[in-house]
């Protein structure tokens, strides 16, 4: 088992991290390039992710996400698409400046996803879940509206004895309210 997500969960549960300061909600939308890697083959569908979160203070947030993707095709003609991906994460924030205009963060969470594979007239579906982790940066122009850049590994699992991963690099808009 990868001990990195466990380490981050323990770190996030520390009382030192939960310092209160202006709790608020935020939402965002991101567009990205996902990479599904299996059996020495990489697919790169585009993805769209919606996110809704709550900042408990400067240093800790909790966030829910929903992602869908386009499809990409393996060399054998099988296309793969992320039907849905749901994620809940703890977000450790490192704000810079008094007004939190720059926020570097790490994420650790849980992902459940469903994929659809199609080859000719045959279609197969499957679901999987597991730990996820990543990092990113929010850049706020006015403390409320901002852009974000992020890289996250949503899935690191095995199917039929074959290891696979699902990573996403995204750019998006985020708004605090």
At a glance:
The protein has one helix at residues 4-12, and strands at 20-38, 41-43, 46-57, 60-69, 71-73, 79-96, 102-119, 122-140, 145-159, 162-176. The protein has 177 residues and is mainly β. It has a single domain (4-12, 22-176), classed as Porin (Beta Barrel), CATH 2.40.160.
Q: Would you write up a description of this structure?
A:
The chain is mainly beta and 177 residues long. The chain has one domain (4-12, 22-176): Porin, CATH 2.40.160. Helix content is 5%, strand content 75%. The chain has 1 helix and 10 strands. The chain has one helix at residues 4-12; strands spanning 20-38, 41-43, 46-57, 60-69, 71-73, 79-96, 102-119, 122-140, 145-159, 162-176. The protein has an 8-stranded antiparallel β-barrel. The longest helix is centred in the N-terminal third of the chain and has 9 residues, at 4-12. The protein is elongated. The chain starts with a helix and ends with a strand. The relative contact order is 0.21. Residues 15-20 have low confidence and may be disordered.
Q: Work out the radius of gyration.
A: 17 Å
Percentage of β-strand residues: over 45%
Poorly predicted runs are 15-20
**Helix/strand structural class:** mainly beta
> How would the global form be characterised?
elongated
What attributes characterize this protein structure?
single chain; 177 residues; mainly beta; Porin; eight-stranded antiparallel β-barrel
Task: Give the SSE map.
Blueprint: H1 4-12, E1 20-38, E2 41-43, E3 46-57, E4 60-69, E5 71-73, E6 79-96, E7 102-119, E8 122-140, E9 145-159, E10 162-176
Antiparallel strand pairs: 1-2, 1-3, 1-10, 3-4, 4-6, 5-6, 6-7, 7-8, 8-9, 9-10
């Amino acid at each position: 088992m990868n001990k990195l997500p466990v380490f981050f969960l323990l770190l996030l549960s520390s009382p030192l991290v939960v310092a209160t300061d202006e709790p608020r909600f935020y939402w965002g939308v991101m567009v990205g390039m996902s990479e599904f890697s299996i059996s020495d083959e990489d697919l790169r569908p585009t993805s769209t992710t919606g996110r809704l979160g709550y900042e408990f203070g400067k240093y800790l947030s909790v966030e829910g996400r929903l992602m869908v993707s386009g499809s990409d095709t393996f060399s054998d003609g099988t296309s793969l698409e992320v039907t849905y991906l749901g994620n809940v994460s703890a977000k450790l924030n490192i704000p810079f400046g008094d007004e939190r205009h720059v926020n570097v963060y790490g994420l650790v969470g849980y992902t459940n996803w469903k994929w659809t594979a199609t080859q000719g007239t045959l279609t197969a579906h499957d679901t999987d879940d597991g730990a996820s982790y990543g990092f990113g940066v929010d850049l706020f122009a006015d403390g409320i509206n901002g852009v974000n850049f992020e890289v996250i590994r949503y899935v690191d699992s095995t199917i039929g004895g074959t290891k696979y991963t699902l990573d996403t690099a995204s750019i998006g808009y985020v708004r605090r309210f």
